[in-house]
TrEMBL record:
Protein's GO biological process: CAAX-box protein maturation; proteolysis
InterPro entries to which the protein is assigned, alphabetical: Rce1/LyrA-like_dom (IPR003675)
Organism, as annotated: Terrisporobacter othiniensis
Name of the protein: CAAX protease
Taxonomic lineage of the native organism: Bacteria, Bacillati, Bacillota, Clostridia, Peptostreptococcales
Keywords assigned by UniProt, alphabetized: Hydrolase, Membrane, Protease, Transmembrane, Transmembrane helix
Domain of life: Bacteria
Membrane-spanning parts: 21-48, 60-81, 108-127, 139-156, 177-196, 202-220, 241-258, 278-296
Amino acid sequence: MCSKKEDLVTMAKSSKKLPNFIWATILLLIFMFGGQIIGGICIIPIYLTLYMSRGMSSNLSLLELFINLSSFLFIALLVFVRVKYIEKRKISTLGFSKDSWLKKYTKGFLIGFIMMAIVVLILFVLGCVSLDKNPIQPVGISALGGVMIILIGWMIQSATEEILTRGWLMNVLAARYNMVFALIFSSAIFGIMHLFNPDVNYIAVINIILVGIFYGIYVIKTNDLWSVCGMHAAWNFAQGNVFGFEVSGINVAVSSIFDFNLVGSETISGGAFGPEAGLIATFVLLLSIIIVYVLGKKGYFIKNEN
């Protein structure tokens, strides 16, 4: 972990350009839409080539999902260009220290997976989960190849959202204003980014904001982005391609280990949006926020650095 003098906010303050919150929001939109446009231009030829390929044509849904997730990479590249050539600082100042990076990512991945597994376990105990006995997509052992391909896509997509909202937005706003404002504002933006997803509701938006607060506090306490990249990837991956639920309202279970359905009260389970839109997820996220905050106060992350 970085020392106090080398925390991410201090490093962000070395930036030659610190945007105010309005300009930072505009830049975020430029990164998102610009990256998607560039990604589309670059990926369409690849997509068409694979589409015409005899071996991939039968797996078009899997291919489409992987390409859509992987195209987020171009958003991250625009952020990197901004940080390196306009703000004049190293990419590592976003939270990408080389020290024990794989250990940090793996630890985060396990935390994210366990959090989603706890949500599903509670839903199962409450009778809000049923097993689809006639899945239309590959499941179980036959789905492992597709599941691993989609995992790579989730790793790219999730890391990009963390680079954008926690690595860049939160830290530049903390450097210009203060950390409390930066945490709340970046988490709110993270929630707003999902406002137009299918079947979204107010619980879903609140929960996604809580996810942002949890990840944000973790980054603040550890000065590390690797871990939350892993958490985010595992949360989405477990939700969609292990348990077979929708992820933020989007059906991503083109291949999954299990194919569960959410039943009963949508307020509790999340319904068509997925577990993220249910009160069980709210409970797990609030508990996680409290735990990481208390551990940070007690110096746990300092004692266990690297």
